[in-house]
């Protein structure tokens, strides 16, 4: 059973938008679309291979890919998401998982995953520009290349692989930069913080003046 490069079978745990979730033993070399048919996938759009730290796959464009060590070397997890799901929210949820699970020892993982989470929030809120997507790739390269353990070296994969599989999902949420300030910069919030800080400082100075005149 299997293929010349990937002999035998593989146990996988199937969850998500399927009629028959559970544990399956599949033969190496079987296609993704055949597995989805086997488990009764409901209007499948996205297949997340090997959990949050794995690969995001477009069923429509990549359904003929096969489970094997040469292609989809699944570690045992297959999550299926239908067209009714919000892909960007799913990706942000995965990144939040890595933020929470980071031990915090190394800075690239501790700070970088928070930055990726913030970037995903900007995209979802419609406040991201093209530069934000470029910075996602830059941060991902730093995190994967300099983190101390496997969590950091794989945590950017939900964003990177979903960007590659569904670029239109991200592009349609971008806005044009208007003026020197990035769309992600909230000018009103910054001015409000300045006003609050100024009023607090003035109040403290007034209190000191009153106290000094006694």
How would you describe this protein?
The protein is α+β, with helices and mostly antiparallel strands. The protein has two domains: 74 residues, Ubiquitin-like (UB roll), CATH 3.10.20; 85 residues, NADH-ubiquinone oxidoreductase 51kDa subunit, iron-sulphur binding domain (de novo design (two linked rop proteins), Up-down Bundle). Helices cover 50% and strands 14% of the residues. It contains nine helices and five strands; from the N terminus they run E-E-H-E-E-H-E-H-H-H-H-H-H-H. Strands 2-1-5-3-4 form a five-stranded mixed sheet. Helix 3 packs antiparallel against helix 4 and helix 4 runs antiparallel to helix 5. The longest helix is centred in the last third of the chain and has 27 residues. The N and C termini lie far apart (93 Å).
SSE order and pairing:
Layout: E1 9-16, E2 22-27, H1 32-38, E3 44-49, E4 55-58, H2 59-62, E5 77-82, H3 87-101, H4 107-124, H5 130-146, H6 150-154, H7 157-165, H8 167-171, H9 187-213
Parallel strand pairs: 1-5
Antiparallel strand pairs: 1-2, 3-4, 3-5
Q: Which homologous superfamily in CATH is the superfamily of the largest domain?
A: NADH-ubiquinone oxidoreductase 51kDa subunit, iron-sulphur binding domain
Distance from first to last alpha carbon: 93 Å
Average pLDDT, all residues: 91
Stretches where pLDDT is under 50 for at least 5 consecutive residues are none
Q: From N to C, what is the helix and strand string?
A: EEHEEHEHHHHHHH
At a glance:
The protein contains 9 helices and 5 strands, in the order ββαββαβααααααα. It is an alpha+beta fold and 214 residues long.
């Amino acid at each position: 059973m299997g293929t010349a490069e990937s002999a035998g079978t593989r146990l996988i745990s199937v969850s998500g938008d399927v009629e028959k979730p559970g544990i399956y033993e599949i033969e190496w070399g079987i296609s993704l679309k055949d597995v989805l048919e086997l488990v009764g996938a409901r209007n499948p759009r996205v297949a997340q291979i090997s959990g949050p730290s794995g690969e995001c796959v477009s069923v429509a464009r990549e359904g003929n890919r096969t489970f094997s060590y040469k292609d989809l070397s699944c570690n045992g997890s297959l999550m299926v998401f239908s067209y009714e799901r919000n892909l960007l929210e799913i990706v942000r949820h995965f990144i939040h998982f890595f933020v929470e699970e980071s031990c915090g020892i190394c800075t690239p993982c501790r700070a970088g995953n928070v930055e990726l989470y913030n970037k995903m929030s900007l995209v979802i809120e419609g406040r991201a520009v093209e530069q934000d997507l470029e910075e996602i790739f830059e941060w991902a390269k730093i995190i994967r290349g300099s983190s101390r353990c496997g969590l950091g070296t794989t945590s950017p994969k939900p964003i990177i692989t979903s960007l590659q599989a569904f670029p239109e999902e991200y592009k349609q949420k971008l806005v044009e930069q208007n003026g020197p300030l990035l769309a992600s910069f909230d000018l009103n919030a910054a001015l409000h913080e300045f006003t609050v800080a100024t009023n607090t400082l003035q109040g403290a100075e007034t209190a000191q003046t009153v106290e000094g005149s006694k």
